[in-house]
Amino acid sequence: MAANPERRAQLADAGLRVLGADGARKLTHRAVDREAGVPLGTCANYFPTRDELLGALGARIFERLAPEPDRLESLAGRTPDVDLYVDYMRYLVERTTAQPDLTVALMELRLESRRSPGLAEVLGATLSRNYRLDVEFNDAAGLPATALDVALLHFAIDGLLLDLLTTSIGADATPDQLVTALVTRLLARPGTGPLSAPPAPRAE
Q: Gene3D superfamilies, alphabetically (predicted)?
């Protein structure tokens, strides 16, 4: 496998453009070569199988959606409470909706992985690694979430992004309002905060 990182990134970006325009079924090595403007056979030299190509696109999506260090540094200087967690999630939604083609491409890849065991293995490893990194970041920052909370927030934000970037249910709320509600309700602890459940009625 060729190791030139710049060419790999160029080919992956071309593949993402093909994926976004034509869907996973039209994504071939030749299509990527043509989109990237490189000699035929170049993509196959870097990504010999289709599953390797698709897996590389998944990894490239996360690279391009990575947070800006300055924004993270600004957030890291604050008290690690639920309000800070809300702002981290708002920033996540801001990044992913600012580049909708990348986020939709990841959705396409996850759907395609249902039909491709090889892709499921490669993409699954990428998704699992990023989840573990999120848990490690949460713990290192002292944020008020468990590993299960982080997983639940993944599920919730993924659903929100699906609604924001595809056909929506039309909820009467802004993305910021929805993120705030998701985070504060998921991280509410029994007996604490304004969202805690009322006490159960006493038996007579």
A: Tetracycline Repressor, domain 2
